[in-house]
Specification:
Order of helices and strands: EEEEEEEEEEEEEEEEEEEHHEHEEEE
Number of domains: 2
Shape: elongated
Number of helices: 3
Radius of gyration: 24 Å
Structural class: mainly beta
Length: 326
């Protein structure tokens, strides 16, 4: 199960009705090169390359590589490297190592007298679902004292709430302070886990942002200011997510907004209904360069204005690098 840490804020995710949203899946293999080599025997081809961990691209040693039809098998060395000569009629290649999900390549056409180099990425059996962290925070504001009931239906399940979630929260808002069972809280918090969270993209393009390490804070300040977060919300968000986004040279960021939040993260029911509300979830990945293998289009965001009874919710999740890269 993927652990989710959620923190909530606001914005807008633009979609096109003409193109159906797709889910990026972890890349299984990439072809580095495929070239004619007349030194190879006729009706044969050579397959070589490296087997790597999907999560980190570290080499995997002793992975079994081969084909059942020809009965030829080799194992990867300490660098994850393998090289095997196969028949041109061998169309299904297996990669197997105990403790890892078996990979079967049967959608690539291997040609006679060709040398094919590929990188193969395996996923640990227990890590097939990417590790996701979510830290949810819900802020409530009202220009008059009010009592409200909140219910969350997360995509997945709770692993922690504060204050304790007892089939919902009943909150008294007095002078913009939240009171639950006679105790004051700055916000409502929940943490959960899910098996279904990934990037959304459209054909060969993806909406989002690639942010340089040294520009992370400026980026967050700019986007959160534009969206309409106040100083406290912005500070809470940046002090948590800033260090996470700066763990590598770049970060990829994609926002999930409002209705998309309901379908991908969880629904939130509030009675009475707020006059204004915004829900934003930030999907992100740390990346070592700015080439993620797909064209990135800057995501359109919209600001919102507060009035009367207002709810702001912001959250985020760290997705595995390989749901984008390779």
């Amino acid at each position: 199960m993927r652990i989710l840490l959620l923190l909530f804020f606001a914005g807008f995710y633009s979609t096109s009705m003409a193109i159906e949203d797709l889910r990026l899946q972890p890349i299984q293999y990439t072809i580095v090169k495929d070239e004619k080599d007349e030194t190879i025997k006729k009706k044969r081809f050579i397959l070589e390359g490296h087997v790597k961990m999907n999560s980190s691209a570290d080499p995997i040693e002793k992975c079994l590589v081969g084909c059942t039809s020809s009965g030829r098998w080799v194992r990867t060395d300490e660098e994850g490297y393998f090289s095997i000569e196969l028949k041109s009629s061998d169309s299904v290649i297996y990669f197997y190592l105990e403790g890892w999900n078996e990979l079967v390549i049967e959608d690539y056409i291997f040609q006679e007298q060709h040398r094919v180099e590929m990188d193969v990425y395996l996923i640990k059996e227990k890590d097939e679902n990417q590790l996701i962290k979510r830290k949810p925070i819900i802020y409530l504001y009202s220009d008059k004292d009010i009592s409200v009931d909140l219910e969350i239906d997360p995509l997945g399940e709770f692993i922690f709430t504060y204050p304790e979630y007892k089939d919902g929260w009943t909150v008294d808002i007095q002078n913009n302070e939240l009171i639950v069972e006679e105790k004051k809280y700055p916000y409502l918090f929940w943490e959960g886990k899910t098996d279904d969270l990934s990037y959304s993209f459209k054909q060969t393009e993806i909406e989002g942002f690639i942010v340089k390490n040294e520009e992370v804070i400026d980026f967050l300040e700019d986007k959160l200011d534009f969206i309409g977060l106040n100083n406290q919300e912005k500070t809470d968000f940046i002090t948590y997510w800033g260090p996470i986004l700066q763990k590598d040279k770049f970060a990829f960021v994609q926002f999930v907004i409002d209705d998309k939040y309901d379908s991908e993260i969880g629904t939130l029911t509030i009675e009475p209904k707020p006059d204004k509300s915004k829900r934003i979830f930030m999907k992100c990945s740390n990346i070592s360069d700015d080439n993620i293998g797909i064209r990135v289009i800057p995501q359109e965001l919209k600001s919102f204005e507060r009035s009367g009874f207002t709810m702001v919710e912001w959250g985020g999740g760290v997705l595995d690098l390989n749901s984008l890269a390779h």
